[in-house]
Design brief:
The complex is a heterodimer of chains A (193) and B (184). Chain A has 193 residues and is α+β, with helices and mostly antiparallel strands. The longest helix of chain A is centred in the N-terminal third of the chain and has 25 residues. About 7% of the residues of chain A have low confidence. By secondary structure, chain B is α+β, with helices and mostly antiparallel strands. In chain B, strands 1-2-3-9-5-6 form a six-stranded antiparallel beta sheet. Chain B has a four-stranded mixed beta sheet with strand order 8-7-4-10, with no helix packed on it. In chain B, helix 1 packs across helix 2. Chain B is globular, with a radius of gyration of 17 Å. Chain B starts with a helix and ends with a strand. In chain B, 43% of the residues are buried. The chains are: A alpha+beta (193), B alpha+beta (184). At the A-B interface, helix 2, helix 3, strand 4, strand 5 and strand 9 of A face helix 1, helix 2, strand 5, strand 6 and strand 9 of B.
Chain lengths: 193, 184
């Protein structure tokens, strides 16, 4: 049996177990902390370019002008940075073609609501984004309800991003797609008293 | 000794966040997907991966996004090489194949072409689409990859049934191989 190096044979089993435990704790803490301490996340990259509670149609993705890394380039995007700490948010989108997608994201990138065009009976989407009921006693505790503004969507965070993705069928479709995308809107709405 | 083991804990966390593991990713040839990407109930590694890479993924309940850094023989995708990908019909699902550099930036090219989708690709009579990735122009569906040394491919498939099968670990249709044709 090969001899262990002297320094290694002097390490006690308690040190090994303690070190393994410490390594495990560091592993867990590092993994759990990254979403909260990372400064380069998507929301941080978009925050300065997007006014709060207003839909903005972004320029078509091009080299040096990518809104986010690895974002599908054959599409146009409209985004709205929402802040529902004071008011709720009304979102209206006309999904012009199959392949269009409306999605809502938290600052950590969680996609808590998504609606693709092809699953719809109609092409109009009207939703109201509200804080989660347990964070505000003002709302009924169901995740969705039908009202004047359509579905009510509970957001797990008071800030986040609304994204409308409109795939381009070709260059000749760009103007038409952009015009349809400009119909998308988000606006703050006073909370019911 | 203790500090080495603590550093090891940090390194393994970093590796599982950047590269993934069988706990959080699923592979099909060179294509790798984070199965819970975008889901509010995603595991901590997937959430950390999403934040660290500044991604804004659409939930894997609707679509699946694969990333390839290597060809089907394991070689790093490189701008100096030519590759062929034969996309199957994918049963009518919307898909997109895009080329980026290793940082997720689009690759500058005179043709201003950065991706093909199921809407824009030119198909063969049997529904397949042959896409050629190369620095110089090629006939058919040419996706330029010049100007950047390392290349990453992103394949997005929008199909809730397929996405559910990937998430639940069920059998899914195989993804197209990335065949290296030649290198300079």
């Amino acid at each position: 049996m090969p001899k262990l190096p002297k320094w290694l044979s002097e390490v006690g089993w308690r040190t090994v177990v303690g070190g393994a435990l410490l390594g495990g704790i560091v592993h867990i803490l590092f993994t759990l902390a990254v979403p909260f301490i990372s400064k380069g996340h998507a929301y941080a990259k978009l925050r300065d370019a997007l006014p709060a509670n207003r839909m903005v149609v972004l320029p078509p993705p091009a080299p040096g002008r990518e809104p986010l890394p690895f974002l599908t380039p054959d599409a146009l995007y409209a985004m709205c940075r929402f802040d529902i700490s004071v008011e709720t948010l009304a979102v209206n989108v006309t999904m012009a073609h199959a392949g269009w997608t409306l999605s809502l994201h938290t600052p950590q990138g969680d996609n808590f609501y998504v609606m693709p065009a092809q699953q719809l009976r109609g092409s109009e989407i009207a939703i109201t984004v509200v804080p989660e009921p347990d964070r505000s006693g003002e709302f009924i505790p169901t995740p969705r309800r039908i009202g004047a503004q359509g579905d009510q969507i509970s957001s797990p965070s008071t800030e986040g991003i609304v994204m409308v993705r409109a795939p381009l069928k070709g260059l000749s479709w760009r103007a038409q797609t952009e015009a349809a995308l400009r119909q998308a809107s988000c606006r703050p709405v006073k909370r019911p008293q | 000794m203790l500090s080495a083991l603590a550093a090891g804990g940090g390194f393994t966390a970093w590796y599982m966040i950047e590269a993934g593991s069988r706990l959080s990713t699923r592979s099909s040839g060179p294509w790798v997907t984070w199965t819970a990407a975008g889901r509010p109930d995603a595991d901590p590694y997937t959430r950390a991966h999403t934040v660290r890479n500044a991604l804004l993924p659409i939930s894997s309940t609707l679509e699946v996004t694969y990333r390839a850094k290597a060809d089907s023989r394991g070689g790093r995708l490189h701008a100096g090489c030519e590759y062929v990908i034969v996309m199957p019909g994918l049963e009518g699902a919307w898909w997109s194949l895009a080329a980026f550099d290793s940082e997720g930036r689009l690759i500058q090219n005179a043709a201003e072409r950065y991706a093909f989708t199921s809407d824009t690709v030119m198909r063969e009579p049997d529904g397949r689409a042959v896409i050629t990735l190369a620095r110089d122009a090629r006939p058919g569906n040419w996706l330029p990859i010049g100007g950047s040394s390392r290349v990453n491919l992103i394949l997005t498939v929008q199909d809730p049934v397929y996405a559910a099968a990937v998430y639940e670990g069920g059998s899914t249709r195989p993804l197209p191989p990335i065949q290296r044709v030649a290198c300079r």
